[in-house]
TrEMBL record:
Stretches that traverse the bilayer: none
Chain positions covered by the region annotation Disordered: 272-292
Annotated protein name in UniProt: Uncharacterized protein
Residue runs in coiled coils: none
Xref: Pfam families: DGCR6 (PF07324), MRP-S33 (PF08293)
InterPro entries per record: Gonadal, Ribosomal_mS33
Family listed: Belongs to the gonadal family.
Taxonomic placement: Eukaryota, Metazoa, Ecdysozoa, Arthropoda, Hexapoda
Domain of life (superkingdom): Eukaryota
Length: 292
């Protein structure tokens, strides 16, 4: 996905245009799918996938997984072919030893049954091995932070993941024309012509960036006001334990006998002893003041 002219440390403007580029092609790939799969791949998933593909390491991971899969499939195919070859060799040996046609036909029928059973067992082992490889790929991509990938046996979810892998491979194998578009975006950012400056100004306005040249002191203010509000930050909002909710929950659990509060038990015991000594407050409506 990257050309020779891409800077080692991409600027925010370049990353924004790359994201736009990836999302545009992902949407075109998405439109080519049948409607049943389009409904299962929402726009939010495409956006998250485009964001993850900003890191070119994802393309290398997917290519590595595909190479491992091709090598594995070739090896498993050779194992299956080896079982076929062994069966054919054994058949030839029996045909050279036995000349009675009836006896030979009986032996070959038994060998065919045995061979079919062995082939079924081999196929089951190969399928289980491939299933494990699929789970390994799902786990690897999930740890790499690629949206839509998680360990699952659901055939529909696996089909969706196959389409997402196809999207990634198609993006990684795009021709020079598409890579030329990315280099044009980069060149446009670096140009100093009036047209380029104007387009850069409009781009910054669209994507919420600072439109005009600003010094570092003012950029601190920009970063402060563009940061996530403190009241919406979980780190600050949930910094202290939720004492009120926990206390309310414990009171209800105590009423069901699932939690023992020694302090409440002590207060109830003191009230009971006061009542035995006649020191308990009178019931409502029976006090001396109410009788006057």
């Amino acid at each position: 996905m990257t050309g020779e002219g891409i800077p080692e440390a991409p600027t925010p403007e370049y990353l924004q245009r790359k994201l736009y580029f990836l999302l545009e092609h992902l949407k075109s790939f998405h439109a080519e799918l049948p409607e049943t799969y389009q409904m299962r791949i929402p726009y939010e998933l495409l956006t998250g996938l485009a964001n993850s593909l900003l890191n070119d390491t994802i393309f290398e991971i997917v290519k590595g997984l595909m190479e491992i899969q091709h090598v594995t499939e070739k090896h498993l195919e050779q194992l299956r072919q080896q079982v076929e070859t062994e069966h054919n060799i054994e058949v030839q040996e029996w045909m050279s030893k036995i000349h009675d046609e009836e006896e030979l036909a009986h032996i070959l029928s038994l060998m065919k049954i045995k061979h079919n059973q062995k082939m079924n067992e081999t196929d089951i082992k190969l399928v289980l091995h491939l299933d494990q490889k699929v789970k390994d790929q799902q786990s690897t991509l999930e740890r790499a932070g690629v949206p839509g990938f998680y360990v699952t046996d659901n055939p529909k979810d696996i089909k969706i993941q196959m389409h997402l892998l196809d999207f990634i491979l198609r993006l990684s194998n795009m021709n020079g024309k598409s890579r030329g578009k990315m280099s044009k975006y980069k060149d446009l950012v670096n140009l100093t012509t009036p047209y380029a400056r104007r387009m850069q100004y409009l781009s910054n306005r669209i994507f919420g960036e600072v439109a005009r040249p600003t010094n570092s002191k003012s950029m601190k203010v920009v970063k402060m006001f563009s940061a996530k509000p403190v009241e919406k930050n979980d780190y600050y909002v949930n910094y202290y334990p939720r004492h009120v909710e926990v206390g309310w929950l414990m009171r209800h659990l105590r009423s069901y006998g699932l939690f023992r509060d020694e302090h409440e038990d002590f207060k109830e015991e003191m009230k009971r002893l006061r009542a035995l000594r006649g020191k308990a407050p009178p019931p409502r409506g029976e006090s001396k003041r109410s009788k006057k």
